[in-house]
Amino acid sequence: MAEDVTHPENIKVLITDRIAREGVTFLREQLPEAQVDERPGLSPEQLKAIIGEYSALVVRSETQVTDEVLSAGTRLKIVGRAGVGVDNIDTNSATRHGIIVVNSPTGNIMAAAEHTIAMLMALARHVPAADASMKANKWEKSRFLGIEVRNKTLGVIGLGKVGMAVARRAQGLEMNIIAFDPFVSPEQARKSNVTLMSLEEVLRQADFVTLHTSLTSGPSGTRGLIGEAELRMMKPGSRLINCARGGLIDEEALLRALDEKHLAGAALDVFSQEPIRDNALLQRLVAHEQIIATPHLGASTEEAQVGVATDVAEQIVSVLRGGFPRAAVNAPLILPETLKVLQPYMTLIEKMGRLYTQLQPEPLRKIELTYSGEIASYDLRPLQAALVKGLLESVSEAHVNMINAQVLAKEWGIEIVEQKSTTPAEFANQVTLRVVSDGRAGGESHPENFVNVLSGTVMHDEPRIVQVGPYWTEFAPEGPILFCRNIDQPGMIGIVGTVLGKASVNIRHMDVGPSVRRARAYDAKRPTDSALMVILVDNPIPEWALDEISQAGNIFGVKMVNL
Ligand SMILES: NC(=O)c1ccc[n+]([C@@H]2O[C@H](COP(=O)([O-])OP(=O)(O)OC[C@H]3O[C@@H](n4cnc5c(N)ncnc54)[C@H](O)[C@@H]3O)[C@@H](O)[C@H]2O)c1
Ligand SMILES: O=C(O)[C@H](O)COP(=O)(O)O
């Protein structure tokens, strides 16, 4: 049997970049049986060689979590980024592998904004060069003539969380703020006294330009956002600050713009290669007299590091205990209140999926999911994921979860169509699953293929199946269950009961449901109508007993399922 990687004693957490002690302590305290290993500085090969042992990986921006690493992480459930940017993690690959990626979207905003302001002031007043000169025992008062930032224009590119925090702080320094961000509305910006403009206008008007977008690739991505042409657009003598991501700037073009004195200076916290090691271009860049460089220190404050490490540690504990993360990068964000309501429906719908696959092991094409009642007003994405999990887990090796459910459903060629109505159907809240199979095993007209509809509800927080194919029923979808249909006439229950007694199988619950048609228009004169027997048992029924029931006469479609 496969090892349960969520069992506390089997959990291993690997931390490959340095994170605050508080985060490590939290993991050790909350997962006392788990093994928490801190292994900073692993090479990509070393990481690949050991990742297969771990259920969780914690990184900052240094560890490259590539497709190769994720493919080797066969037990990996979650990757936690103790920080914001996830450009060092192949999130598409994580999604395909069903691995949750979480980050701390707000833990280091202030740290990054304050570092940007520090860079702005250092650039304006040559603080690092003056300090170096003093340390070289010089007193070069006239060499370090600076400029004031008051009444200067700051151009913010990317008016998101950090960009806005920088804008507010720069307003305190009496700067005028202009910004470029195609996803922010002018009203939103105006409320914060920021004037939105095109990228070109910002570059032409600003005395200082500061970058705060994330790094994205592709045709409309931000990689190389500030290239040769954009640097030329910048006002002569202006200054550039980058505390966002290295790949945003063409570093070679920046070096030229500085050498030609088109720009007066640049302050860089981030680089296209980190650490820069023996990258000749980056070495020349950081050695340049007009450059101020820091080794990706934007988030490096005590406060931010404690914040991001505990933020991520909490999410890892929650996920490893079967809960949900607060800030998943590759999963829908579901509020805890919503999740509380949806949880029993997730169990219900997963069981409906499992029940369907076991009763009707036939390739699926299309599923129509109908939600009726108040439940229809919620964000129901987790339910769809639960359905795919239920449908596929008994027939495939795939580890299905909320992260990869849609990708896997597509790979299996299953189309899921949802219908929602807040008007209750037969029950206050009801989920109905209608299946269009590809009919290879005889299709819907085949006498054994009676299950094209399953319906369920939740009673007192417990899932209940209320319709199976054309029959009404009511049972808790749990454990071994015998399904059989019989001609609706006296003596049928007795036959089944006797065989089960002979086989020493204890019946936990039994339900005999008439067909929906018959229940709707009850007609005692139609004894040839069929009924569905659903018998919940305590232990599996031996083959010989199932055969005996099948051969008893007037009983057909005998099937054992395990939910
Ligand atoms: N140096 C550090 O240590 C450090 C610390 C924290 C954050 N960061 C980096 O700072 C950046 C901003 O972080 P955030 O939390 O504010 O992110 P955010 O998502 O809140 O903001 C990014 C903003 O960029 C905008 N944007 C997207 N594409 C754009 C484009 N082509 N042109 C202009 N704007 C565009 C978005 O609309 C958004 O408003 C990220 O790259 C993050 O990784 C660095
Ligand atoms: O994206 C981030 O959170 C920052 O760039 C900080 O990165 P770091 O955790 O490697 O310092």
Automatic annotation (TrEMBL):
* A GO MF label: phosphoglycerate dehydrogenase activity
Keywords of the record:
Amino-acid biosynthesis, NAD, Oxidoreductase, Serine biosynthesis
Catalysed reactions, as listed in the record: (R)-2-hydroxyglutarate + NAD(+) = 2-oxoglutarate + NADH + H(+); (2R)-3-phosphoglycerate + NAD(+) = 3-phosphooxypyruvate + NADH + H(+)
ACT domain segment(s):
481-563
Ribonucleoprotein as a keyword? Answer: no
Q: In which pathway does it act?
A: Amino-acid biosynthesis; L-serine biosynthesis; L-serine from 3-phospho-D-glycerate: step 1/3
A single Gene Ontology biological process assigned to it is: L-serine biosynthetic process
User: EC number(s) of the enzyme?
Assistant: 1.1.1.95
- EC class, as a word, reads oxidoreductase
Q: What does this protein do?
A: Catalyzes the reversible oxidation of 3-phospho-D-glycerate to 3-phosphonooxypyruvate, the first step of the phosphorylated L-serine biosynthesis pathway. Also catalyzes the reversible oxidation of 2-hydroxyglutarate to 2-oxoglutarate.
Please report which protein family the annotation says this sequence is part of: Belongs to the D-isomer specific 2-hydroxyacid dehydrogenase family.
Q: What is the protein name for this chain?
A: D-3-phosphoglycerate dehydrogenase
